[in-house]
Structure formats: structure tokens, C-alpha cells
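3.2 Worked example (two chains)
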Amino acid sequence: MKLLRTLSFFLAAFTATTVLAQSSSGVGTVNGRVLTEDGHPVPGASVYLVPLHRAGVGRPDTVKTNEMGIYKISVKEPGPYAIHAFKIEEGYPDVIFAFDVAPNQALRREKVNILEGQSLTGIDVKLGPRSGNLHFQVVDERTGRPLTKADYKLCQVQVPDNCVNSRAVGAFDISVPATEISVEISSPGYSTVKYAEKNQPFILVKPGEERDLVIKLALR
């Protein structure tokens, strides 16, 4: 009996020391649920925190929600954070740029301020709005051979400054908001193509829609 009391004492002392050490090191946690626009939990969603008090950091560690849509993520220093959540395979991209949200839709991003050693609970995050997805294959117009390098520029027609551009190697996928999007594709040595659909100088993808596009480029 005396031995049990002694062990209990040491276990309690060890637990108290551990909690104290965590508090003094500034480690905290944030947990809650990831939900769809209509409030349903999203299992398998990705969640990460972006520190707002310092810039120039890479993407922090990402966690996945469990089968009930619940996430729990640790932070290593106090401060303000923005919570990012996404599930690309269900049409919910990681919303980072103004291009990712249609002009008539609001950019939703949950923000929290974590104090020293604090654990925040019940911080629910809503995904959405849903986007569409474009799969591009760029080929030589004459031979049909896939081109290994392609430069693309996509802009919202209603807000022309909301653009995204990059260079892709081979085929590429990109999530686009449900609004009119202009598409410009080029490749070294080839003429630039502005994609048109149904005699309209833009493409319109519905939320959750997948679209395959083959872009043919002609040599200059």
C-alpha cells in the first residue's frame, strides 16, 4: 500500500512537471472541426496554420481530419494565426490568392490568437466555396506530340487583375473558381493561344466539375 502511494506521488509529480514544461515552452494547440458550406463534417481534409506575426516562412506541418472531421494541430510559439483547410479531391482548394475566389463570393478564413501555453477548442473551419478543376494537355498542333514545357496565365474576366500564372512541365491540373476565366497558353518556340469556348473568349467551370482540355500550339 505504501509502495502504491509512493508511485502515485511520483507519477503526479512527473505529470505536473510535464505540463509546466509545456506551458513554459509556449507549446499550444488548436482543435475543432472542418465543415462543408452546409455544415457537414469533412473527413480527410488537410489543415495547417500560417503565422501572421512573421512573414517569409514555408508551409507549416499539415494535419488531416479524422472520420468525424475533427482536427488537432500544435503550435510552437504564441501569436496570431490564420487557419487553412482544404480537400482538393472534393473541389475545395487551398484558398491562397484572390484568384481562388469568384468575385461574388467571400473569402472565408478563420483566425486565432494563441497565448503562451494555450489550447483553443471548438475552432470550426468551413470549406468553400467549391471550385472546378481543369486538366490541361498541351500538344504540338501538327504532330500531336505533348509539349514538355508550357506557360499558362489564367485570369478572372470580371476582375482582370486576379490572375495566376506559372510554367508547367507536361500536363497540369489547376483548380479554378466558378466564374468566367480567360486562358492563355504558350510554349518556347510556339505561338501563344488564347483559349475560346463556344465562341466565347473564356471558360466557365461549374463547382465540382472536372474538365479535360487539349491545347494545340503551332510553331512560330
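3.2.1 Second chain
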Amino acid sequence: MPQFPPSAGPSGRRVPRGRALVVLALLLPLAAGACGLLGAAGVERPSVSLDSTRLRSISLRDVDLLLGFEIDNPNALGIRLDGFDYRLSVAGTQLAEGDRREQLSIAAGGRSRADLPLSVAWDDLAAIYRSVRSGAETGYRLDAGFTFEVPVLGPVRVPLSRQGDFPVVRLPRLSVRSLDVRRVTAGGAELALALEIDNPNDFPFTLRELDYALELAGSRVLSTRDAREVSVARGGTERWELPVSVDFGQTGRAVAQALSSGGRIDYRLTGSADLTAPVEWLEDTRIPVDASGRVDLR
């Protein structure tokens, strides 16, 4: 059996082996406790939650989404977000995936927000909608990971998973049902345009803040905003009457002759409006407005 020499004390004198083992046994718990205190000295992992989801705008090309995250730092020291990765799926089909590298400082004991703007092709989302048989909503799943630099702990990745409802949005159908000629003078005309709005969705919505331009007989007659709102029931139809003032000095003789002679006239109405509905994601979503055809003058 091997023999271990006695240990040397601070003064250089040898300490009996038995006494050295006793001292070591006393010091080890103290050392372990010190390490535990260092790791638990008020230093915790930050928390992240999905705070808001919004479809910001829809066009015939792109759909812009905005995800908002709330970050909570429970520590007595500041931390730093270095970036995050994400994957968003709708109805079981991956819609977006990527990494966002940006730094954000969060004060001690503070909270902050991080936003993730996403742009996806309308055709990709429309293909998902076509696979959904019916209903106002389908499911979505978000998987993300947030990387922080935390004092004592170093780099920390905080995962986040969230599932919820995603709206199945079908753009409203718009058409000009009538164009009433209220007054015609040598310099212009006052008209009333009845815009019919058809809601093909399984939820009601409200349209407001209509920015639009109107062409009659191929000439631009006005470009303006109507701040009023109109609510349309699920599967319903409503009319929105728009006042139109025409300046013949700006539009030319073709419009003046068409309005004076009556009959039918070509029109095109283009612009955008805010859509809000009582479903998740849809709050002041900007949608396109585009209607064209021929209408009877009355």
C-alpha cells in the first residue's frame, strides 16, 4: 500500500496527514458554497414573451407582418440582446425563417421591446388560404430563440414557442354602383359616388381612413382622403357614399362632355384603407382599394 508523505503547513512545517484531510474536508463545502453563491448572486435568465401580432398591410404582391416581443430583465445588472432566430408557420406550412442580428440593451430590473417586421409574398399566403376549407381563422406556430449577454452567466439563449390563431383574410370586393350628378356648371360638377363594399370573410370588419384617387373617362378628377368609417357584417354588403368635386379646368373637356350628356362613363378608383376586425392580427391593417368599370350617370 503506497505511503503519502505528511503535508506542509504555511510555516513549512509538516502537517500530519490525518489533520490535512480534516482541513480539506472542511474547506470543500465552503468552496462549493462560494461557487453556488456566485452563480445565484441575483443573476437569472431573462424572460421573453410574444406581446403583439399584427398584419400591417396587404397588397397584391406582399403581406407585411409585425411581431412584438417583451423582454424582462430580473437582474440587478444590465444585460444585452445580441439577436434572435425565428421560424413562423401557418396552417402547418413554413411561411418565414431567418436570423435578426441586432443589439439592444436592457437596464437592470427593466423591460424593453423588440420588434420583428416580416414581409412575405401574397401568393405564398394565398396558397395556404386555398388549402383551408372554411372558417375565419387557421393556426400559426412561432419558434424563436433570443441570445443575450448576461453578467456572470455569459451568452444565454432563451427559447420561445407560441401557437395561436391566424386570420384567413379575403380582400373586400369593391365596385361603384352609382354616380349621381348633383350639379353641373361651366367650371365643374358636384357628384355623389356610391361605393359598394362586399365582405367575403367569415368575420365582420370596419374600413376607415380611405385614401383614394378617382378617374373618370380616363382623366384624374380628384385625389383625397375620407376619414369616415363603414362597418360590414360577415358575408354582408354596405355602401359608402363619397362626395366628388370636379374641376373642368383640371380634367379637360372629355369629362365635362360626358357629365353633361349623361349615359355611361368609365371609372377607376384606386387607393388604400385601414381594416380592423375582431380577430387576432387584424388591427388597422392597410389594404388596397382598386375598382374599375362603367357606371350609369344619374
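3.3 Remarks
Residues 17-39 form the longest helix (23 residues).
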